Structure formats: C-alpha cells, structure tokens
Amino acid sequence: MKKSLFRRVAVPALVVIALLAAAGWMMKPKSPAKPAAVATAAAPAELEFLPQEIVSASPVELRQVLLLSGSLRALDLATVKARVAGDVREILVREGEAVRAGQVVARMDTTEYEAKLAQARGNLNSAKAQLEIAIKARDNNAALVEKGFISKNAFDNSASQYAGAKASVDAAQGAFDFAQKQLNDTVLRAPIAGLVSARNVQPGEKVSPDYKLIEIVNLQKMELEAAVPASEIGRIVIGQSVSLHIEGMPQSFDGKVVRINPAAQAGSRSIPVYVQVANPNNQLRAGMFAEGKLVLSSKPGVLALPPGAVRRDGSGVYVFTIENGKIARKPVSTGSEGQSGDEPRIEIVSGLDFGAQVIRTDMGNLVPGTPVRVAGQSTSITTNAATLAQPPAPATASSQAAVPAPAAPAAAPAAAK
Predict the structure, then answer these.
(1) How far is residue 138 CA from its own chain's centroid?
(2) Which CATH number does the domain housing residue 364 bear?
(3) pTM of the predicted protein model
(4) 223 plus 293 within the same structural domain
(5) CA-based nearest residue to 226, from 267, 268, 269, 270
(6) Cβ–Cβ under 8 Å, residues 250 and 93
(7) pLDDT tens across 235-274, in order?
C-alpha cells in the first residue's frame, strides 16, 4: 500500500522536474556563434601608376631664370609728316602695304608753291642782269681811272654798285632755292623700308606742317622693354640670352639683352631692360604681349625633381620611390630651385641616387611597402593610384560566416505510467 502510494507521487514529480529543466535550458541565452574559420588578414591593395606619374632621377641642367614680360615694338619705325601746309592731293599707300625706302607715299597740291618758285626765279634773273651791268661798269671805270680820265671816287662808286648787285643775286638765289625746296616738299617719300601701320589722312584734307600722315614700321627686328626689379639688375649683363614666348605663337623665339636703362622708373623703382629678337619672316607684330625667361645662371648634371615629387611634413623633406615593386619613403636634402627646359625643378642634394624611380605627383598619404606597378603590367589586384592607400580594415563579426547554433535537445519522453 505504501509502495503504491510512493510511485503515484514520485513519478509525476520527476516528470515535472524534467520538464522544468528542459524549459530552463531552452530559455538560456545563446553564446555568440563561433566563426567557422579565423579570417585571415587581407593583403594590401596594389596601386597602379601611369607612366607620366613616374619620373626617373636623371641628371639635368638646372637654370636660374628671371621672368620678364611686356609688349613688343618695332626697333625701326618712322612717321611721315607734312613738311608744308596745303591740301593733300594723293595718298598712295594703305595700312599693311609694304614700302621701300624712298618710295613716294603722298603728294600735296603744288599750285601755290609752283607760283612762288616762278616768282623767285624771276627775281633771281633780274638780280643777275643787274650784276652783269655792274660788272661792265666796274671794268670800264677801272680802265678809265688808269688813264686818268675819271677820278678815283667814280671808280669806287662803280665797285660799290657791283658789290650790291652781287649781294642781290645771292639773296635771290637763296629765295629761289627755298621756293624750290617747298615745291619738292609737296612730294612725300618713305624714310625707311617696312609696312604701313597707320594712314591718318585722306585726299582733299588740308593739313599744316608736321601733321602726321603715315606711320611705317620695320618688323625685321623687334624689341621687348621689360621692367626688372632693382634687386636683380646686378645679375643682368648685355648679351644674356632670353627665351621668349609670344602670345598667339606656338613656337618660342630667342632674344638677347642689348641695352640696360641707366635710370630707374619713377614709382615702381624698376629698371627697364631691352631685349632684341630677330623677326626675318615678319611673324611677330608690334604690340604683341611677350613673356621671357632670362637665364641668370646654369648648373649642369644636377639631380632635380619636379616640385610635386618633393614632399614636406613635420619630420622633414622626403620623396616616395618605387623599389622592388613597392613604395619606399626616402628622406632627402634639397638645394636651389630653378628650371629644366620649361619645367620648374628642385635640386636634390642628398638622399637619392641617379636612376631612382620617383612618384612625380602628390598622391596623398601613400603607405610605404604598398605594392605598385606601372600601367600595362599584369597584376592580380589593382586600384586607382589616385586613391589614398590606407591599411586594410580588420575583419568584423558581421563579415564572418556564422556557424549555425546547435539544435535544442528534444523534450524527455513522458514516463510510462
């Protein structure tokens, strides 16, 4: 009896305990899933550079240059002005036409000056006639005074009349020459060979003496006037070469310093320097804007790099090179700055050898040891060289493959009654 009662109480109690234990296990917080495999550190990305982004450290000629600028002007120019007052009859040339030295370019009305010349010619002829009479009277009186037929005073009077007549001839001759010159001045000629740059008058206009009619320029030799600071004038000497770039011209022109102004300009205190450039084909025109580079000094066989390749930070000056297919940081010492060809360069005094492959442009925070290659070579991983190279981000739990949690154990079977 007692044994049967114990079974009826103990068995249900064990079942309840088992169910509570199973429910507690099912409600227990699950621990994070363990990764199936430990993520390995990602390999650094390989950078790709274009060939023009790499410069080889080779010896160059480093030049110290002084920049000049200004407008070109013709070395030889002339203005044809009216020499006499009057009406313009003809203008024989127009802008842009070529003229020879001595060529007739304009004519004035000659009516007035032909009349003046005729009047002067008549006065001259009259004076010459009076002179002939005075000569004959003097010669006759000279013979008579020798024979005692006339007094000495009568001879002196005839001699005085001769002197007066001769003076009148000289005066009339001068007036005639002046009238002839005025008539000749009505024909205007080009003083130099060149091109007509301006025509300031039209036929029929009345002009006064010294009125500007035509301007002529000779473009065979051009000149640049450039202002140089007083601090640099001591380094400039006559004969120094200048490379000129002319606005609108694809090619450069060679010039040289021919003159240095002895006085400084008021206000700016700069000193004008004159650079002459040959222009045999008349390619250059007066008024064109020019920029010049005057070579002050030159140093051959220098290791020099573009300014973008030389970097600076708190630790000093350095460059990035490519060694064994990887980026390397090289501390360097710099020297003078100048130009090689048309590019600015910075001299590298120490820290870099000739032949080193240097990254030319500033790519940001490059990481030493990053694999690199030049475009065109085979690679497995490639990124844009312009992208900043940063250390790889560590693997996180969200990027790892999660291992499925073990299934919950099945509930214990109910005890057999």
Answers:
(1) 82
(2) 2.40.420.20
(3) 0.59
(4) yes
(5) 270
(6) no
(7) 899 999 898 999 988 888 999 999 999 999 888 889 999 9
